[in-house]
Amino acid sequence: MIILSAIGGLNFLLPLIRFSFYDQMLVALELTDTQIGTLGAIHGLLSVLGYFFSGILAGKANVKKLLIISCIGMAASSLWYATLPDYTSLIIIHILLGFFGVTTFWTPYLKTIRNLGNHSEQGRLFGMSEAVRGVAQTLVAFLCLGVMGLFAEVTMGFRALVLINVAAFVILTILVIFFIPDFDKEKAKESVPEKTKVEESTSKGFIKIFLNSSTWICIFLVFCAYTLWITVGSYMGTYTTRVLHVSPQLSSALSIIRSYIIVVVAGVTGGILMDKFRYKSQGMLTAFLSIAVFGVAMYFTSSMPLLCVMVTIVISYMANAIKSTYWSILGESGISIEDTAAAISIISTIGLSPDLFVPPVISRFIEYGERIGNVDAGFDLMIFLDHCLGAIRSYC
User: Fold this and answer.
1) Residue 214: half-sphere exposure toward Cβ, Cα within 13 Å
2) How far is residue 305's CA from residue 318's CA, in Å, rounded to a whole number?
3) pTM for this one?
4) Which of 159, 9, 28 is nearest to 81 (CA)?
5) Do the Cβ atoms of 328 and 274 come closer than 8 Å?
6) What is the DSSP string of 185-208?
7) Which H or E run includes 294?
């Protein structure tokens, strides 16, 4: 679980580097807000497609080989990224990062985590896995922040940051080769009738699961929660820089706390707290309502930077508590263990589709605010969008 969770965390660190190093990314790659948003949408498109095809691959290909291909592909794509190429090349790189980070990895990872415990332990299992992902991201992100501080020039520091990610994936490739069991060899020991039954379920169960109301309950929850999480993670950093006038270095440090350290705390405590509720949806309702309340507080504390920063940290905790545990509702909603792979593919494809539209929409909000000479207005639109989603989800 530790190795797979670490890969799952670092697979998204570089594609979502804007979460922590947004302003440095603008300078080092000579991009605009809209171009950064477009790159996010491109990676999101490949991720959405990857979520679907990952379920198909997981049922047909060797799991260990898929994991090795994922790590090698991420290392190679990151190495190309380290050359700080032009915008066209960055588009191709984000396509590759989406493919290797999701298609060859996602379903094998989630299915393995779910099978590690029974129904009553799902919140803690997914919470702990999210926490391990957060630890891996935090260690690498703070290492990147420290290395960037060694360079006077932003461009050189950003290149060093990307090379650290390359080294991390080389190490993870070695760990997968030597420590991850070959799951398919274990499956081969099963009886032929049972194996045939599993293969039939994998190949023919998608339509049945797609039409299942339980699947759509999960899709709706994941869709709203993921939209909130992307917005909080991607733009709270540049919000503190442009609206609260915090320095880029301090903003990056705060972003790492929100995006990674909070992930660890929310993963551990959020999973335990969700398991305390009779129904996990009750716990998630409480978290959504809390985000709405603290979101309103952002409007009234923007003139008090220290207090506003604390508010953004609380919002980050709530958003990550939901994200770290929303896969734990699969059993509660009525999805069986046998249908996990197909359900994850369908739910991920639709529920995580905000990757496609949130970055370009929010980036245009920000540029609108700058164009009219009031950047606060752009961020107000962003917060209003989150309020709408939170309100709809809480009402339903």
Assistant:
1) 16
2) 20
3) 0.68
4) 159
5) yes
6) HHHHTS-HHHHHHHHHHHHH-HHH
7) helix 280-301
pLDDT digits (tens, 9 = 90+) for 305-332: 889 888 888 888 888 888 878 877 777 7
Is residue 318 classed as helix, strand or coil in its secondary structure? helix
| Spatial contact of 173 and 71, defined as CB atoms under 8 Å apart | yes
Q: Residue 235 and residue 240: Cα distance in Å, rounded?
A: 9
Q: Residue 38 corresponds to which tokens in the numbers above?
A: 């477009």
Question: Residue 20: which residues within 8 A CB-CB, separation 6 or more?
Answer: 141, 144, 145, 237, 252, 255, 256, 259, 260
The pLDDT tens digits of the residues spanning 280-302 come to: 778 888 888 888 888 888 888 88
CA 342 vs. chain centroid, Å, equals: 20
Amino acid 61: pLDDT = 78
CA–CA gap between residue 151 and residue 121 (Å, rounded): 46
Q: Which residue from 119, 111, 124 is spatially nearest to 54, judged by alpha carbons? A: 111
248, 289, 309, 375 from 381: Cα distances, Å: 23, 19, 19, 10
Residue 204 burial (CB < 10 Å; 0-12/13-18/19+)?
exposed
CA 145/CA 162 separation, integer angstroms: 11
Under 8 Å between Cβ of 352 and 22: no
